[in-house]
Structure formats: C-alpha cells, structure tokens
Amino acid sequence: VQLAESGGGLVQAGGSLRLSCAASGMTFRINSMGWYRQAPGKQRELVAAITTFGGITNYADSVKGRFTISKDNVKNTMYLQMNSLNAEDTAVYYCNAQTRDLIGATSHYWGQGTQVTVSS
User: How far is the C-alpha of 17 from the C-alpha of 9, rounded, in Å?
Assistant: First the structure.
C-alpha cells in the first residue's frame, strides 16, 4: 500500500485546512485509516481514525468538534477537514493505513507527511 498526502500549508489561527490521503496498491486489504501528527519535540499522536467498513470514527480529545475525518472508499482517499485551527495544531501530519491479510496479520503503512503550520 502506498499513501500520498496533500493539503498541508500555512494558515492563520481560526482558519481551516483540508488534508487528503490517496491510497494505492493493495487497498482492498485496508481495514482502517487514520491521521497522526508529530510536533517538534513531541511524540507522534493519533488525531483521528476511520474504519473502512462502517465508517466508525474516533478522535483525539484535542480535536473533537473541530476536525472531521472521512473516507471515499471508491476513490480510496481519506480526508481530514480541520476547522478552528490553533497554534497547538502545528505539526507534520501523517496518513496511516492498517491492513489485515488472510491469516489475520496486520501491517501499518505511512505517508511521507505534510506540514501544517498555524500562525497566531
């Protein structure tokens, strides 16, 4: 599975951005996808995730009510709509896909990351 993110950039506090992650390859094995972020000097953290079947979502408390994750299963593309951005959202955002093979073994794949910078 290959993942390609886009949509990062510089935005003022209170503004919005939409990230996209296009998956290719053995996408039929993807059972969930998610967005993670890593700020300078901090550990990578889960921002939001969504399952392929059922579209079940979960969010970090820090982004609930501001960010919305969605997925177009036909286009194999995941989105993250980010509203009311603040300086604490500044980070490199990574797309992640989890796959499961026929024997139940799971694998994780990562995109190259896209920088989101929020100016105050």
Answer: 8
